[in-house]
Amino acid sequence: MKRLAKWRLVSLFAILTLVLSACSGQPYLSALQPAGEVAKKQYDLMVFSTIMMIAVMAVVAVIFIIVLVKFRRKDDKIPNQVEGNHAMEIIWTVIPILLVLVLAVPTVSAVFNFADVDAMEKKNEDGSSDALVVNVRANLYWWEFEYPNEKIVTGQELIVPTDEKVYFNLIASDVKHSFWIPAAGGKMDNNTENVNKFWLEFDSEKADPDKLFQGRCAELCGPSHALMDFKVKALPRAEFDQWVTNMQNIKEPQEATTDLAQQGQEIFNQSCIGCHAVTPSNGTPADARMAPNLTNFGDRNIIAGYLEHNEENLKNWLSDPETYKPGNKMTGTYGELTPEQLDALTAYLMGLKVQGE
Amino acid sequence: MSTNAQKRGFGATLWDYLTTVDHKKIAHLYLIAGGLFFLIGGLEALFIRIQLLKPNNDFVSAGLFNELLTMHGTTMIFLAAMPLVFAFMNAVMPLQIGARDVAFPFLNSLGFWLFLFGGLFLNLSWFLDAAPNAGWTSYASLSIAQTGHGIDFYALGLQIAGLGTLIGGINFLVTIINMRAPGMTYMRMPMFTWTTFVVSALILFAFPPLTVGLFLMTFDRMFGANFFDAAMGGNTIIWEHFFWIFGHPEVYILILPAFGIFSEIFAIFSRKRLFGYSSMVFATVLIGFLGFMVWAHHMFTTGLGPIANSIFAVATMAIAVPTGIKIFNWLFTMWGGSIRFTTPMLWAVAFIPSFLMGGVTGVMLGSAAQDYQYHDTYFVVAHFHYVIVGGVVFALFAGAHLYWPKMFGTMLNEVLGKITFVLFFVGFHMTFFIQHFLGLWGMPRRVFTYLPGQGFETSNVVSSIGAFLMAAGVIVLLINVIITSVKNEKVGNDPWGDGRTLEWALSSPPPYYNFKQLPLVRGLDAYWIEKMEGKKGMTPAEPLGDIHMPNNSFIPFLISLGLFIAAFGAMYHGDEGNTWGIPVLIFGLLFTIGSMFVRSIKDDHGYHIPKEELIDDNDKGVKA
Lengths: 357, 624
Known about the structure:
Chain A has 357 residues and is an alpha+beta fold. Chain A has helices at 2-22, 37-70, 86-114, 118-121, 237-249, 259-271, 311-319, 321-324, 339-350; strands at 132-139, 142-147, 152-155, 157-161, 165-172, 177-181, 185-190, 196-201, 213-217, 229-235, 302-303, 307-308. Chain B has 624 residues and is mainly alpha-helical. The longest helix of chain B has 35 residues, at 62-96. Chain A: Keywords: Cell membrane, Copper, Electron transport, Heme, Iron, Membrane, Metal-binding, Respiratory chain, Signal, Translocase, Transmembrane, Transmembrane helix, Transport.
């Protein structure tokens, strides 16, 4: 009999593990598979409070079941009209107060920890800081990532070093958005009138070069809110530094190498360059940076924030952006493109690379 | 003037309802209008769930989806839940305190018509121009940026409907303070009356911030102001504060009457007085008070800083304490009782685990550091549907079954009632439980679609199937209502057999003057006390005399109609080439002010029901 109970327990745990693993979502996207210090602390708090809450629910469940089983109406007797019970009422007032206090301590400590951005405020003489800072500017429906210390700008794909605190300045240029990388930590809003600051950290062990972390907008911002995604590539510090250097080395737009790409560059210079920059300098003011910077477009893993990075998707997107991102600001800013023009533009854009070679 | 006269034509009945100032008929109006909006809101929810049935679905467009989600939230909160709660307050509260009507019957009617015209205006947006599309919260930067008139419908419609709610709240407050029957002290008031009282106070303080916020938005959008335009020195965060200083108390405005209804049900069907009545009253007041101290927990990610976030986090978690007190008091009301599982009791029993689930996730959300992950994801969607459906909607269903005989004189079918319960209960948990996980797996709320391969597919299918089960439950309820109305089998005073409070001492439905003689209240559960001493009814507190009654009036309808017309003028006047906007705006406002003027200068002293007619009624009443 005892052995049977033991086996039951084992199989119960087996099922529980199975359920839990099925319940934790995708490693690049889920808050339940933390890949950084902030997310880890938040996950621990979730587990802690969930256990606490399950305990509370268990107590209620026991009383609930006893009541429903034991006190069904059997006869027409009038039960004793009890007014209350002071001792019991005090117990179920005091215990919840204690539970709330127990949860309040780690909560408040974590809130202050996540808001601690002193390192980015400490400025050197030239105005830069030792910590890595990224200015995140959210726009209808794309993301710009500016590295003020490194003086470079990129878009749609956030590139960060692993295993160190990365500090963020968040702002929105049109309507309110919210910057969220679930696997790395909770979100913070990009307001239109003030800069919000916080930090995240990306774990090198969890950073998978094949499946980049997914970031998204978490505040309703218009029709394409659901498609306002971005990717996060977390690199070891040395590779990150290399990428920064490569970017910084691009002072002039890269020249296309093939004939087709050269045609593409001509079209680009006529129709696209008014909004899209192909040099990474952050010299132009933010207001003038009206569309994602495309300096390293060829290196990226997504088109328009969420489509797989291939030529077909690029052509589809260029010929009819409205279908792929309703309400976007690119629709109607340039004439219709012929298939030849699309081929040329695609060849040019796919060739814009700073990594690899 | 006798309303229990014989059958009347449709026109006469319609006119009677258009002009009525009787709280019981106004309750009918609230129930019908609120029920209708509930069906519309439910339909919008079904469209949302169909769209999310599979990834990259194109059942509706991205823009239409945003309109659906906005109108679903706005309709359900302002036009369904609020009026349905008001329906029960109107139907039951005056009876529970032993009053002949509310303090201001005219205002009661005005409140209803303002709500109805506001709701109609909001829903006309589907047919004119476009529906609002910035979410029920309508955050300023997004709502100001919207072209078209969608947001204008939101701002003006809610303004008119909100006025009605505010008037209703003040009316209930005055009624409860002044019109309690002899012997009905505050601490003898039934729990539902207590929650109505606290909720009315919440309305009094919570709706003005909404009114102000909506006015600022109206001026920003229609009259060229820049309160929320950051580029012009405005500030969008102010809107968030205004909205949530209203919006958080609003959820308590909805849930407290639900607590009240459940408190009545647990006591009735356990045949026991409410356990820990005074601590229940204390908890209700405390929840109402704390409800105003926690609004910024909706804004943890807005960037208010760690100090504000910590204070609001702790304040939010503190609300768990009075709510916990209530849960245990309900459990111990049943403990030692004699429980009968009628349809209302099934809803009440199911409410405890469902609401508890929403409560514990509420504490987790209140813990700000975790909230950074939960905020604006499906976890939040799951949480607030657990409290609003698992709390408020369950209570509305329970209340509908419980008070149907008191409102209409007939009993809803118990078998169909239980089928509704099972379908809705199962569907509800199917729809929303899985959404906790969707949120944690990285699915933000308010997304019109999601991509394949992120592990969201199966869960969304489960959720959508659940939504259809809930819809099936509602359809069964509708069938039940129709069958019951057609059969029209009248029941007696106390059809559940175990009524405890004053409303069950009256016939079903009560006569239009409620109490022929005001009752003498000798303790909590006044009717129960008399029953236990073997008496058939209440001891009168006054000799039989003439009863003073208010006259019916069409003016509330006209006052509301004027504002409805004015709203069209305000909305369209800014359109290019529009010439009629300003004249219509002025005409509408003059129409309203004129109607109010007529009301003010025309003496209306009401009328008296002579004593003789009351004696006559008494003889007829014996049959019932």
